[in-house]
Amino acid sequence: MVRKFSDSIRQSLWAIMSCAATFPTGNAAYASCLSLEDKQAESSSMPDSANEKDSVRVAELDEYTVVSDRVRKEVISSAPVFNLSNERMKTIGVTDISDALHRLPGLNIKDYGGAGGMRTVSVRGFGANHTGVIYDGIVLSDCQSGKIDLSRYSLDNVGGLSVTIGDNGDIFIPAKASASAASIVISTMSVPAPNDSAWHLTAQFRAGSWRFLNPYLKLGKTLTKNLSCSLIGEFTHAKNNYPFTLHNGVLVTRERRNNSRMNSGHGELNVRWRPTQASTLDGKIYYYDNDRQLPGAVVLYNPVVNERLRDRNFFSQLTYRNLSLEKFSFQWLAKFNWDASLYHDENGKYPGGVLDENYYQREAYFSASALYLPSDKLSFNYSADYSYNNLNSNQPATVEVKPRRHSILQSFTGKFKNSRMQAMVRLLWSVYDNEVKYGESAKDESRLSPSASVSFQPFWSLFFIRASYKNIFRMPTFNDNYYFRMGSVSLKPEDSNQVNLGFTYQMPAFSWLSAAVFTADAYYNTVKNKIVAIPQNMYIWSMMNLGKARAFGMDITANATFHLLRNQSLVFASNYSWQRVQPRTNPADPDYNKQVAYTPQHSGAASISWQNPWADVVFHATGVSERYGTNANLPVTRIKGYIECGATLMRTFRFHGYSLDLRFDLLNIFDKQYEVVVDYPMPGRSWKATATFEL
Fold first, then answer.
1. What DSSP character marks residue 48?
2. Are 198 and 187 in contact (CB under 8 A)?
3. Can you tell me the distance from the alpha carbon of 277 to that of 292, in angstroms, rounded to the nearest whole number?
4. Are 601 and 578 in contact, with CB atoms under 8 Å apart?
5. Which residues contact 638 (CB under 8 A, 6 or more apart)?
6. Worst-scoring range by mean pLDDT, 271-275, 478-482, 483-487, 489-493?
7. 588 conformational bin, left if phi > 0, alpha if psi -120 to 50, beta if neither
8. Do 82 and 558 touch, CB atoms closer than 8 A?
9. How confident is the model at residue 45 (pLDDT cuts 50, 70, 90)?
10. Region 391-405: what's the mean pLDDT?
11. What are phi and psi of 53, to 5 degrees?
12. 132: DSSP letter
């Protein structure tokens, strides 16, 4: 009987992993699954008699189907979590990663414009360095600047995107995944299911304004009953010479962005091997290459720019999960990452008229995790991570220093969950050891970072009250420590605290209304030892721990689906954020209690989608209030607020097992000219047309 029970456990857990691997809508299926520890606890709580043959006489009853809406993860989570599945992004007309993040609350996006413009994200005023990006379960890293450029990642292969503020409710994760104030989780659509022997082909071509061309191809196949793989390739070309209006006093002229061309390519191989029914080994090989011109800031009477940047990134990663034991599960991860940033500028101010700055960084990363479930209500996880980073460059300071960093992170997490409450506590122990080949190295650091969260259902309806706290810090980057003439090896880590209090509510379904979900959260954050650049004289600046900052605000979301006539519905999605992010270093400073640069007080997005048998129609809008280009909030640095509107028309044709999706997007319908970063005008009215064939 015990053996039968263990087999049942393995089969249940295998179903969960298969759910995560379903192709091509694997992540949509995964979104409907419970987290691994929840599902395992649920299976463990089954009585032994459920697996025994019943000798009692059986009478067959009529079959009935009970339909109920799934409880959304963001409703029961003890910390703010906001999810966008692949199908959800299509429904609300999302066009790219930047647009997807605009549809989520609490995020502030720096966008330098155009198809090749850099995009970084800060959450609730913490800054981009405090935002972790997790790609298929493993954290992306940039030891040089600490900021991840999200323009590198397209939505074509993304099965789901989510933002977690604080701690993730899924505790079976690496320690590094909990080492940021907030995390953006990108899950790709992986490989075919084990019982699917057919070939899967996705061929897509997208074209748009200003010579935007983007072919994409994906091929997937289950080679044997235990081995599946998928191969992905895409290329993007864009001229990016979009027009904009230039104001010079009373003179108004129509100009075009120049030196903006980009050519980028991305290839990816995913493999899943199932050595046993209760274990999987996932492998990924990834390569990205972007050769782009940099348009630079708009400067009066000097439109000539000759800057170029080539970004190259290669990584390979392995993830092994073993779920064969009744109460224990294990996970091992390994990754090697290589990244190159090659900058070239031609200008007479340089000796020889040319400046070349080349940076190369490498990372070796290993992680092991163990999940223990003593009962269906309790779960514990221990994770230990090790990573090694180094940076090389042709610049004098880096060539002489050759910085290296060893990082050891350990986390212990406990979680309690019953029918009306969910609570989690976590301790993260971080150790950083810095080395240089020549000269003085940065300080070594070690910290203990606690966090806790709880969600409680006071009534029987799907109404939850939640509260969370997290202490976390970020190490100075290699630029902070060693940048030529500016870096300081004596810097302390930035230390942050965040407190969140909110509620969530999911309305019961009616014949005319379903999936109505509301969330509201208020928060208070502080950062001390903030790293800022301080001028020593007109020519020399240095990095110092002089800054303190606080942020408080509110995030609200509302989503609902209204059923109209047969096969017709309206899908409404919206979010609103209010935030005050203030420097608090010295009351005598001119920027004390002002709004931090580039942070709007008000931001939000809304969309309405009409789903029907003919062609789905979506209208969406995003907007932010005014911002300032400096912390002093000087009137001359004021950046106007904006509302950008777009529309999408989609139709799917199905025939003989094939499907053809046709989509047309009209962006910035009213040709609104605005800036996210000072002197970097964003594109005006544009269009994109997409055709996707699936076999």
1. G
2. no
3. 46
4. yes
5. 626, 627, 628, 629
6. 483-487
7. alpha
8. no
9. very low
10. 81
11. -70, 130
12. E
Type and span of the H or E element at 71: none
Q: Which residues of 165-185 are buried (b: 16+ CB within 10 A; e: fewer)?
A: bbbbbbbbbbbbbbbbbbbbb
**Residue 181, SS3?**
coil
Rounded Cα gap, residues 386 and 145, in angstroms = 20
Tokens at 347, concatenated: 């200008």
Question: What is the structure's pLDDT at 72?
Answer: 76
Overall residue count recorded for the chain in this entry: 695
Beta strands in 45-169 (DSSP E): 81-85, 107-111, 119-123, 131-135, 138-139, 158-165
Which residues share a beta bridge with 558?
Answer: 518, 574
Determine the Cα–Cα distance for residues 161 and 180; give it in Å rounded to an integer: 17
Token pair recorded at residue 204 = 């897509």
Q: Which residues contact 350 (CB under 8 A, 6 or more apart)?
A: none
Task: Determine the straight-line distance between the first and last CA of the chain, rounded to whole angstroms.
Answer: 44
Q: How far apart are CA 685 and CA 645, in angstroms?
A: 10
Task: Provide DSSP, 255-284.
Answer: EE--S--EEEEEEEEEEEEEEETTEEEEEE
**8 Å CB contact between 116 and 189:** no
Longest pairwise C-alpha distance within the chain: 94
Pick from 224, 150, 203: which is nearest to 24 by CA? 203
| Per-residue pLDDT tens over the stretch 235-286 | 999 999 999 988 877 888 888 888 889 999 999 999 999 999 899 999 999 9
- For residue 270, list its beta bridge partners: 230, 284
Token pair, residue 598, equals 């580039």
Q: What angle do CA 676, 680, 681 make, to 5 degrees?
A: 80
Q: How far is CA 572 from CA 145, 439, 474, in A?
A: 38, 58, 37
H or E element in which residue 186 lies:
strand 182-188
In this prediction the pTM is 0.87
Strands (E), 347-436: 354-372, 378-393, 403-417, 421-436
Segment (H or E) for 151: none
Q: Characterize the bridge pairing of strands 686-694 and 200-208.
A: antiparallel
